[in-house]
Amino acid sequence: MPDEGAGPSADSHRPRRGAEESPTLRALAEQLSDNVRRGVRKQGEQVVQVPASRYLDPDWFARERQHLFGERPLCLGHASEVAEPGSVMRFDATGIPLLIVRDAQGQLQGLVNVCRHRGMRLVEERSCSARRTLSCPYHGWTYELDGRLRNIPLAEAFEGVDRTDFDLLKFPVAERGGLIWGIPKAGASFDADAWLGPLVDDLAWFGIPDSVLFRRFESERACNWKLVIEAFIEVYHIRVLHRDSIYPFFHDAQSNWHVYNGHERMIVARRGSESEPAWSDDPREVRDRWTYSHLLFPNMIVVVHPDYVSCLSLWPLAPNRTRWSHAMLIPRAKSTPDWTPHWEKTMGLLEQTVFQKEDLYAAEGIQEGLSSGANDVVTFGKLEFLLGEFHRNIAAAVERKS
């Protein structure tokens, strides 16, 4: 995505040097640079078709929700949202009321946002800070920030009750690459390093750990969640759908990719990249030449722009209904008030012009078309290889568990 608008000083808002180089990111850039110069495009080996019912069938949708969104690690937010001890973030997108808490020792805690007395929500706000405890607004049961029950008002009325049975339910969370990961299931466990593997280094190289959340834009759209993901893992559509917005900044259908553990790394060639070296020790120069768009399986896209990062999360509500969440991450050093107009303008242009009016518009149009019954299958060409991989990994997870 082009850098729109101007900030207080040239280049001072750009990512800093210092993050360890990712060999895979470099290899992707060098291969794509060679393809652009030779005028060839990377393609998959064959055309792939998936049933149109994958976007319509309530039973398939329920199985996706169970196995992809209830049993696998998901990105729940950015570390800056709970940066200080006592910070609390409410998260409801999975259908289970969750809290991500930074306790007094600075450790992340994943707690279910349900009082163990009568089931009342403990926290109503989207986020809050400087909390020392969590207190139920119904009867005042109070919990430590690590979930332990601290106080029961008029405790004599609960004589004989084992207080340890009433600690808050916990779910596993971990902080990797500046992002917060968790499985929204009490008592679950996961290995964040094994789940992400080398992508942790990618996230660091993108500057995400040194970023802060500028703003989160959320909306509900009338489409299946997968249709939105698909718009960000192929570039075959850019020349037509984005012809009046971002297409002038990119080569036509020029991308490279790599798949790891269901995650998909994609790099897109910006115009002018063919006249520059494929790689540089300075991430700022690389991000001027290439746009990285990573799928963190199953439901988050990380788009790396020249001077900021978009984290796009898709949360399924129904087969034809999705919650869209766009978190704009900006460099910590440029989160001061004098930079606000620059980021406001950038967010507005990207979110309202490209994402809402083009990508999400197209997803809703496809949903309407598929709902008509006109097509029995959806067809992915060789330039849309990653879409076939995406569906293959979904099917493997859903069918293996069912």
TrEMBL record:
Keywords: 2Fe-2S, Dioxygenase, Iron, Iron-sulfur, Metal-binding, Oxidoreductase. InterPro entries: Rieske_2Fe-2S, Rieske_2Fe-2S_sf, Ring_hydroxy_dOase_asu_C_dom, Rng_hydr_dOase-A. GO terms for molecular function: 2 iron, 2 sulfur cluster binding; dioxygenase activity; iron ion binding. Residues 1-25 are annotated as: Disordered. Residues 11-20 have a biased composition (Basic and acidic residues). CDD domains: Rieske_RO_Alpha_N (cd03469). Gene3D superfamilies: Naphthalene 1,2-dioxygenase Alpha Subunit, Chain A, domain 1, Rieske [2Fe-2S] iron-sulphur domain. Transmembrane segments: none annotated. This is Phenylpropionate dioxygenase-like ring-hydroxylating dioxygenase large terminal subunit. It comes from Panacagrimonas perspica. The lineage of its organism: Bacteria, Pseudomonadati, Pseudomonadota, Gammaproteobacteria, Nevskiales.
